[in-house]
Design goal:
about 140 residues, alpha+beta, Double Stranded RNA Binding Domain, about 45% helix
Length: about 140
């Protein structure tokens, strides 16, 4: 197995990447922070941690400044030390209730019982709001 390439990453390293072989470069300053370079030259920052004997790669993003990525990685590392699972929290937030599900619940639980013109309101929501807002997370 090839040894890990580890060095103090610089912002310039992220901008000057070249297409070629896929590689991962680990940051010597912030434990767990890694930049993954694809054969196309696209690079993305990630935070790597272990949870229950499994290695989990938490992608931070490609358009993030290195200084910000180090802060994010430090916060994620603290969350892991506290016993939380950042990847599971991200998945839970992604699976949160959408506007469409909330509109459906509104009709079923409230509007049908209390509003005589609920069918018209339901039609208007389905025709005008759901096509644009149906998949958005309701907050």
């Amino acid at each position: 197995m090839k040894a890990k390439e580890k060095r103090v990453l610089r912002e310039l390293d992220l901008r000057r990447r070249k297409p070629g072989k896929a590689r991962s470069v680990w940051d010597a300053r912030q434990p767990g922070l890694v930049v993954r370079v694809r054969p196309s030259g696209h690079a993305a920052l990630a935070f790597v941690y272990n949870r229950g004997g499994k290695t989990i790669w938490f992608t931070i993003g490609g358009g993030v400044l290195l200084a910000d990525a180090r802060l994010i990685a430090a916060k994620l590392r603290l969350a892991v030390v506290e016993g939380r699972d950042p990847a599971a929290e991200r998945r839970a937030a992604r699976d949160a209730e959408t506007f469409g599900a909330l509109a459906e619940r509104y009709v079923e639980e409230w509007s049908r019982r209390r509003n005589r013109s609920w069918e018209q309101a339901d039609y208007l929501v389905r025709a005008h709001l759901l096509p644009r807002w149906g998949g958005r997370v309701a907050r």
